[in-house]
Structures are given as C-alpha cells and as structure tokens.
C-alpha cells in the first residue's frame, strides 16, 4: 500500500474519531487556529493531502537523525523532515552524523513544539516543516548556526540559512572544524 495513502487514511480516521468523542483535558496537542481541513485529490493514483493550517503543536517523541524527528500529533506518530537543511548522514558513519542527532535531541526531545508547514511531504512520506522548540527557537536555523547542518540549497531559497552557514564556516563550528567536510548529498 502506498505510504502516502496510508498516512492520509490514518489522519482522516483520527480526525473523524476525534469529532465523535467529547473533548478531554488530556487533548493538549491542538492546531493553533482551527481543526485541520483536509482535501484529498486523486489524479492517476497520486494522492495528496493539503492542510489549510500552517502551524500545529505536537510532542517530539523520537529523533531519527539530525534533520528528521518523529512527533506525536493527536496520538498519531508523524515523521517530520526539517525544511531548508541537510545534516551529515548517521547511517554511513559520516563525520558529525551522530553529533547532529544528539544536538537536535538536546534542543527538542520530549518537548511540545510548534511546527510551521505547508503540508508538503517528501518522497519518503515525511512531513516537511520548520520546528520551534518550547523556548521559541527555530531549530532548523539553530542546527545551521551550530555547524551541524548545511543549507540545502537544492530545496530552499531562504538566504537567511546561507548567512548562518557562512558564519558557522568562518567560526569553524561543528562540521566546519573538519578541513574538508563532505555534504550529505555527495556522501550518499
């Protein structure tokens, strides 16, 4: 079964179950504005989910690597890919791969976070977004500022990430302390 379709089905079922039961005090994870509006379009077996809301609150329940976390939203685990950045690979033992995961964990694990997302998913079925921890810190930018991530220019045109990356390079922070850091897209 298509992974994207599975996520859509789970979200729809989760939302329909929520509507039919009374609200409970334990339901702390909510959208900032209003309940999500999900539109499902099907064109030649291609299914998309489009959410009108751009901000949601959820708990970080797992750190998969330096640019991917798992969040719990309405009792539904969702993988979130941090937008604008790419971090060293943990799997292939790329230098700073494990360190990037630890830094991200220190910044947000088990916290209620806010996620800004357009509702887009990557080819691996992960929601793409910008994550803010419980102190309001933009973690996508913080990972670049700390020298734990590259600005992923292939998928981002936000120049503020470029500025942060150049500052980290000059200060030789994190992965920039390596004399010849290899970008993850070349390492893969």
Set down the secondary structure blueprint.
Layout: H1 3-19, E1 38-43, E2 46-51, E3 55-65, E4 68-73, E5 76-82, E6 85-86, H2 97-108, E7 112-116, E8 127-132, H3 139-145, E9 150-151, H4 159-171, H5 184-187
Parallel strand pairs: 5-8
Antiparallel strand pairs: 1-2, 3-4, 3-7, 4-5, 6-9, 7-8
Give an overview of the whole structure.
- The longest helix is centred in the N-terminal third of the chain and has 17 residues, at 3-19.
- The chain has 188 residues and is α+β, with helices and mostly antiparallel strands.
- The strands form three sheets. Strands 3-4-5-8-7 form a five-stranded mixed barrel. A two-stranded antiparallel sheet has the order 1-2.
- It has helices at 3-19, 97-108, 139-145, 159-171, 184-187; strands spanning 38-43, 46-51, 55-65, 68-73, 76-82, 85-86, 112-116, 127-132, 150-151.
- A hairpin with a 2-residue loop joins strand 1 (38-43) and strand 2 (46-51).
Pick out its properties.
alpha+beta, single chain, two-stranded antiparallel sheet, 5 helices
How are the strands ordered across the major sheet? 3-4-5-8-7
Measured on Cα atoms, how large is the radius of gyration?
18 Å
| Number of E strands | 9
Number of helices: 5
Low-confidence stretches: 18-52
| Backbone shape | globular
Helix content: 25-40%
Order of helices and strands: HEEEEEEHEEHEHH
Structural class: alpha+beta
- Describe the main β-sheet briefly: 5 strands, mixed, barrel
Q: Percent of residues in beta strands?
A: 25-35%
Distance between the termini: 27 Å
Overall pLDDT score: 80
């Amino acid at each position: 079964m298509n992974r994207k379709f599975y996520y859509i089905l789970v979200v729809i079922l989760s939302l329909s179950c929520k509507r039919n039961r009374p609200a409970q005090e334990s339901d702390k994870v909510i959208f900032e504005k209003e309940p999500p509006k999900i539109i499902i379009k099907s064109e030649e077996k291609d299914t998309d989910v489009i959410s009108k809301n751009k901000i949601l609150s959820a708990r970080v329940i797992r750190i998969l690597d330096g640019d991917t976390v798992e969040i719990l939203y309405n009792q539904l685990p969702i993988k979130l890919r941090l937008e604008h950045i790419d971090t060293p690979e943990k799997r292939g033992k790329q230098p700073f791969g494990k360190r990037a995961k630890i830094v991200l964990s220190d910044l947000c694990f088990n916290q209620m976070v806010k996620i800004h997302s357009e509702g887009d998913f990557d080819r691996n079925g992960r929601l793409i977004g910008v994550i803010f921890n419980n102190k309001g810190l933009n973690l996508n930018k913080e990972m670049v500022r700390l020298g734990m991530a590259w600005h992923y220019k292939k998928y981002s045109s936000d120049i503020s990430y470029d500025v942060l990356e150049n500052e980290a390079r000059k200060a030789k922070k994190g992965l920039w302390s390596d004399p010849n850091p290899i970008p993850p897209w070349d390492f893969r």
